[in-house]
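Before a computer can learn anything about folding, someone has to put a protein's shape into writing. The three-dimensional part falls to structure tokens, numbers that each stand for a local backbone shape. The protein below has been through that process, and both of its lines are reproduced in full.
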Amino acid sequence: MKKFGYLLVLLAIAVTLGGNALAQGDKSVYFTTYYANTSPFGIVDLPTTHQPIPFAPDTTIRIINDGDTGGTLWASFYVFDDSQELQDCCSCPISQDGLLSESVDLQLAYFDFVLTPKLDYRGVIKIIASSTPAGGPSYTNTLAAGLHGSSTHAQARINETPFGPGPYQLTETPLQDSNLTSSEKTTLETMCSYAQELGSGFGVCSCTQEDNDF
């Protein structure tokens, strides 16, 4: 009987711990990652000589909506080059339990020459999770947890060939949970509005349509 009572105590502890685990979850609303060796138009930049090297693979950011809110969430992307200049921004919907796949080369860092007349081979991507689309005219995010994601990266093995990096290999890392201050949020939203309004249609990244993920 004592043994049975001991088992009941262990079961009660397990249920309690399990209930707490279910109640916790990840409440992040802000994520960061980097991109490098992008290959717009099939070329990339060799860091030492700044010569184009072909055939770097495209990289992808994938984000899921864990369904916790019971509705659609938006991933608001802010893409910077390695000079800390905003290049593109957009807000992409992800339905409950849905998946969003974004090509870094062709959708997120597709290099709007009107904004900055240069190719940007590397930089930083910031993502805010929002329950509303952060488009014009306000460009404001309504913070909401429930997005989780990862990013692939094209890694160059610099000294393996006489003429620069190659072959490339892909790695994948989780998006980094980051701390979003009110000033950072306002700055990103304001920079996005300036880029899109002053860019006259440029400065806008594109979103993959639902059920067309890759």
About this structure: The chain has three helices and eleven strands. The two ends are 58 Å apart (CA to CA). The CA atoms of residues 161 and 167 lie 8 Å apart. Confidence is low (pLDDT under 50) at residues 1-21, 48-53.
